[in-house]
Amino acid sequence: MDVFSLNNSLLAQYTGFARSFTRIRSSEILEKVTDLYAGRRFWPEPIIQLNPHYEGGGSVQSLVGPKGLIDDCAQIFRDSRAAAGASDKTLKLRRHQEQAIGLALDGKSFVVTTGTGSGKSLCFFIPIVDAVVKAKRAGEDARTRAVIIYPMNALANSQLEELKKFLADQNHAVPVTFARYTGQQNSEEREQIKNNPPDILLTNFMMLELLMTRQSDLDRRVVENCSGLRFIVLDELHTYRGRHGADVAMLMRRLRARAGDPRHPPICIGTSATMASEGGEEDRNQVVADVASRLFGTNIGRDAIVTETLRRATDPDQSADRGLSRLSDAVVSAASGTPYYGKSNGEIARDDLAIWVETRLGPREVDQKPQRARSLSLKTAAVLLSSESGEAVETCELALKNALLAFSLPEKLRGHSGGSDEPLFAFKLHQFISGAGRLYTTLDPSGSRSVTFDGQIFDPENPTKRLYSAYFCRRCGQENHPVTLVDDNGAKSFEKREIDDVPLNDDEEAEGIVERWGFLMPEPVDGEFTFHGRDEDYPEAWLEETKSGELRLKATYRKTRAELVSVLPDGTCGNDGQRAWFMPGKFKFCPACGEHHSDSTRDINRLAALGAEGRSSATTIIIAAILRWMNDTENSIPATRRKLLAFTDNRQDAALQAGHFNDFLFVTLLRGAILAAVSQAGDEGLQEDEVGKAIQRMLGFVVSNVSRRTEWLVEPDLRGAKLLAVEKVIRESLTHRFWIEQRRGWRYTNPNLEQLGLIEARYISLDDLAHDDKEFETYPLLRAASALERQAALRVLLDVMRKGLAVECDALDRLKIESLASRMRSAIKAPWILDEERFLAAPVFMPKPPTRREMSPKDEELILRGSPTSTIGRQFRSMTFGGRRATGKQITEIVEGLLKAAGRYGLATQVVSPVGGDGWRLVPSSITFALSANQAPDRDNPFFRGLYAHIATLLADGGEAIFGFEGREHTAQVEGDLREIREARFRYGIDDRQLLIDQAERLKELREDSRFLPTLFCSPTMELGVDISAMNVVYMRNVPPTPANYAQRGGRAGRSGQAALIVTYCAAQSPHDQYFFERPSAMVDGVVLPPSIDLKNHELVESHLHAEWLAASGAALSASIADNLDMTVSGKPLLPHHWNRVSADEAKSAGAKRVAAVLSAVADDFGATPPEWFVGVDANTNRVVAAAPQRLADTFDRWRDLWAAAERQVEDAAHTLKRLFDLTAGTPCRRNTASGWKHPDKAFATGGRGPRLRFLRVPVSGNGRVPAWL
User: Where are its TM segments located (predicted)?
Assistant: First the structure.
């Protein structure tokens, strides 16, 4: 796969999208913005990262021996890819795996810090299995010998599957058992773990905490089964940092004290990403050792840190540092073609350019050991190659692209006869993309303004000048700056503000300083600007006539009158400054073009920032661009490899993004089909009764198109009358959707065909009606109006009715739509079905509607208002009739006159309004739809114009367009069987397709398709269950929290050994995203900062000591808070049997032993500088144990307060209801409402605002129950 071509394609499409929404009037600003875009400010050069080659070690068989592994391991850890006649079919280990196993065999704790995909799990699985088998052969009792703790369930799930590969089918005498205990198991599975302790237990840190604290029989038995624990494994230990890390460190000490054997302490094993530090390898290892020692509570030396050992793929005797005599020739040859095709890996390994690539972009020698090199951008690498080869940078860049693509292909795909499946070396291309965000300019005169994307207070090139954020009028592109005008005793200056940062009071005054907020508009210097601040320059709707007949601003608008100011570059007002207009308050009017706003939308929606796209829109466009490239006929990618994983940091966003993506694809396909249908209709246009058939034909949703049936039919094998009936249903549905498309697009980032100027509606005989003077004789203003004025008014009226869906047609009839939706439900696939709860029906246009006070919200949906204050009324106020403007009463007469004339000409028809009175609807047969003869206001949106035109062409030519594109979320919120189905759809191998066939009935129930699924939107906790061996693209919706997370997610691509593309979107307003956008190598290199873990915090340590004391007491608290308290006694104390249990001498004695053991382990970490609260193990133990019973009782105080407040609210409500009933019915009010408050579940359920248990510092869940682990 040519990842460079793919990357260029998606960047071109994203660039077109990102620049499609913001108009810029100022040629000066536009020129500078264009230059900034051309400089790839928001999509810098991609970063190249070579996949490492790991030094090999021995096989599992080679480690079997008296002091090594037991022979059973050779039977368990087999290589499924080994040749049939091979003498050694066991796994071939890497050097670091062999070193780790050796440390474990010596009984030493250790940490493995190697890259993603390096096989870290085998470093602990093999020695654990070895120890388990040896113990069982020695006749030891059944128990859990290893606990592996993961930071998230997905890792545990993934590792469970990995264990199954080796341990599921065990044919040897001593089977090794394993189980997962993460909270996902049902009661039967938990009982099985309790009664038959697994040799290996996979869990997470939270579940381990619950097991060690709760006192149910199940929990006690599971922990008791771990007695004499031999292994404690912390996977991804670099993720444990801060308070969270300290909690895990305390948990490790508690586990070792509770389950470990002092005579044979458990071996502690950790896996970690590389940690950043100064110095050489020994210094880096020491940092990891210190972190691991602090977490485990045992000494781990730097000699117990296992690092990766890399090897060269090219000739190890040559390197770029030693000089390459034939480098220039190799560069020229690679740039001119593909000299590497047909060659073996061994031949290419001696090529100078291959050697240069590996030694400059791959491992570098550090302390005589290969270490991963820092990643470089493509441009930086080309410049470096140019300096060392003497060839031009452009030549070097082309040579690098060609060479890397050839190196990443398997030998046999390069055309080498008898070649292997192995490439010379694969690579990843990392592309970071940023949203444009905001633009900032100075207030210099036009022609000398500074323009930047970097938000600062002052211009870095001239600190005396202030920078102001610029937002642009969506209609004309005039720049406006949100500001606060500060008047300090007559000295005025402008300070920038956030666009939606609005003070509570319009004007703020303190000690002579008056602040007013609003917008500052520099006065344009072009001749088209005609605003002078006169009353007549404002919108007609803002004006009123005085008694003398003069126009003036209405009182409600006088506060927003624009003020002419002269402002200097430092923001102060002065005579020699730039002329500008200050508009107080919200942005309601653009002096440059006259656009005005009367709704309550936010200013950020009225004005456009430089980048209008959000994270969801950008993600949808990028992923669609990737899939379009993959499915292009020029790119010969196997169908089931045209896929990608998309990551987001929470599961809600995954579902949101999947919906956004699918909706975009559906709308794009529908609009493309509409455009194709209208185009084929030619100059005559498309009639209303032809619309459904024409769109259906373009989509291929007809009986004759057998191959397209899977796109829209639930049962593609339908025959005969049933098939014809369903064909009619989809046609009616498409007709309905066509009319819905008449509405103006409400999303700025997805304009419809009419807004883009691609199609237009034409009204039959409109010109004849406008010239028919007799039709308007009884309406003075219309009689006086010219034919052109009447024509314009008629078009406004008919457009408002059409876009408001006031059309008399079956496709918008409410009852018929309901029937249509019902018929579609079982026959038509999503997204082509209609949502019965969200469909739109035709309202009635009413010139004289009831007042809004007389209407309910539901009734309001039934009408379209045509009163003088409505949308059409405001438009008519801005028009002239015979050179005169209409008053409110005259507008009603105009609307009435136009409607009656349109009715007589068959353009409209009078109907009875469902809310009473007369109404009107358009006659659909009077409208034709054709390609637009004129450009629309949104004509400068080339992206969507090109997109819809491209889809229309593909459909007209019978192409597949974007059929088959689909995205689904893959998160913990998705049901287990549905997740399994989606994983099968994503993999789509032979077994997967069979599974989907077997699950056909379940698929119908879930309304899930059985086709190949090209996109999964994953939360980071769920993606690990997906087989990613055949995937070469990963997308990240946001920058992951740490470089280790990035490496883990990015590592899902390119596992098959070929080139991979990793795309990361960085939101403009996210500080985290922007930090790493400016420093992409810091994220790509996968190096994390050492976590900070402080164990001297008194509250932290005490909370864990309390947990140990509570576990030792044996008090089995109920999951319901109220069941632990005596609700019949004032103060609601602990129930007597609980109090007696925790305050008994036995509890004190047992608790003291547990507390002292843990405290002793913590004290070892204090060293010579213990915290002030620590006065000795015995003293602190006695203090904790003595106070513990009362501390436990006090834990429920917060809940008691909330309960008391709830009771008071119930009583107050009961009294209020009683008074109301006494006043109305004279009947007593019974306190039935109080009966539902015996438990606080309902009071706590809303919002999940349960109290925090001070005793154990964990939250009480929102349903009023104590945590399940108490």
Answer: none
